[in-house]
């Protein structure tokens, strides 16, 4: 298989972390620190999220190699956001808050959850990719799946697309097979809305359907209702496209400022989706990976709007988890 773009290559297998996102949240212009996932050997670049500004070690930041921290120095050009600004953002794009850090690090340092291939459950998808027969993918989901708040969705540098396009392009790179993506996701939707959109999914005659809901559902639906809605979507698409296979995606976690969801539901959703897996259905467990990432870093490091959308780095975590569940990485 061909190598993947470095931004898609899974961070848990690599010794180079590409454009890891960090943010500096504090009350004044004093020294502030942010955690990296790994203690760096060599820092290759530190830039603004758009890549337009290259920050200078010593003047803008310091690196605590042993602790795995980047320290924003007083008077640095790197963005600084107050707690009050975070609270007042109210879902606005936070792309300008982010600093992107690329660095090398020792191998085999990740001891957290590793998204894994679910074996031969997607046998038809795997066979088509390996034979370079091409693949048609439908993505159904909410605003996250539609592409909010990847930079490309908003037409700002570095123009990275959302996770659906990242998955499709990675499969093309890896297998040399044509991949057609139909992104049917709609902002504000829940899994219950997708039930009434299965005719559009079936009309595309998909080989694979990615079902990625949960953020909006967590406002109202207990795990049993959520899983029943997802299961109904799978069943209704299968009634029309018998050969179709599925990836069900458990969602990212919101920031504490997202007060209209019930936080406990996300782990419950993950467990309920796992019960739906079997022949032709695999789980991409973004929830578990996300919880371990923000435990090491912080929720705003991966957030694209300070609330309930991923930033560029977060979209890459979605894509890497989905690709691992398919067996493409």
Mind explaining what this structure looks like?
This protein is an alpha/beta fold. The protein has two domains: 16-104, no CATH class; 119-326, 3-Layer(aba) Sandwich (Rossmann fold). The chain is 30% helix and 19% strand. It contains eleven helices and eleven strands. It has helices at residues 83-88, 123-130, 143-146, 151-154, 163-175, 191-195, 198-203, 223-240, 265-274, 286-296, 312-326; strands at residues 16-23, 32-35, 42-48, 61-64, 69-72, 98-104, 135-141, 179-183, 208-212, 245-250, 281-285. The strands form three sheets. The protein has a five-stranded parallel sheet with strand order 8-7-9-10-11, with helices on both faces. It has a three-stranded antiparallel sheet with strand order 1-6-3, with no helix packed on it. The chain is globular, with a radius of gyration of 20 Å. The model has no long low-confidence stretch (mean pLDDT 95).
């Amino acid at each position: 298989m061909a190598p993947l773009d470095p931004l898609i290559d899974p961070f848990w297998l690599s010794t180079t972390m590409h454009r890891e996102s960090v943010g500096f949240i504090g009350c004044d212009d004093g020294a502030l620190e942010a955690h990296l996932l790994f203690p760096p050997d060599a820092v290759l670049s530190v830039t603004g999220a758009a890549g337009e500004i290259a920050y200078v070690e010593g003047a803008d930041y310091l690196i605590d190699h042993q602790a795995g921290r980047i320290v924003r120095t007083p008077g640095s050009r790197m963005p600084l956001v107050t707690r009050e600004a975070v609270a007042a953002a109210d879902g606005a794009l936070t792309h300008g808050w982010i600093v992107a850090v690329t660095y090398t690090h020792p191998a085999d340092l990740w001891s957290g959850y590793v998204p894994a291939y679910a074996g031969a459950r997607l046998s038809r998808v795997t066979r088509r990719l390996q034979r370079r027969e091409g693949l048609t993918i439908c993505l159904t989901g909410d605003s996250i799946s539609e592409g909010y708040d990847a930079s490309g969705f908003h037409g700002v540098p570095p123009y990275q697309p959302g996770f659906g396009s990242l998955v499709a392009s990675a499969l093309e790179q890896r297998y040399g097979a044509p991949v057609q993506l139909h992104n049917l996701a709609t902002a504000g939707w829940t899994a219950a809305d997708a039930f009434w959109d299965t005719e559009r999914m079936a009309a595309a005659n998909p080989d694979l359907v990615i079902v990625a809901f949960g953020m909006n559902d967590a406002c109202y639906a207990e795990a049993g209702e959520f899983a029943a809605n997802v299961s109904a979507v799978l069943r209704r698409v299968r009634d029309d496209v018998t050969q179709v296979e599925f990836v069900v995606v458990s969602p990212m976690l919101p920031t504490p400022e997202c007060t209209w969801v019930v936080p406990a539901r996300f782990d419950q959703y993950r467990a309920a989706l796992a019960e739906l897996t079997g022949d032709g259905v695999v789980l991409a467990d973004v929830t578990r990976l996300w919880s371990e990432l923000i435990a090491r870093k912080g929720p705003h490091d991966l957030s694209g709007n300070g609330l309930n959308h991923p930033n560029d780095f977060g979209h890459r975590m979605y894509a890497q988890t989905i690709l691992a569940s398919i067996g493409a990485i």
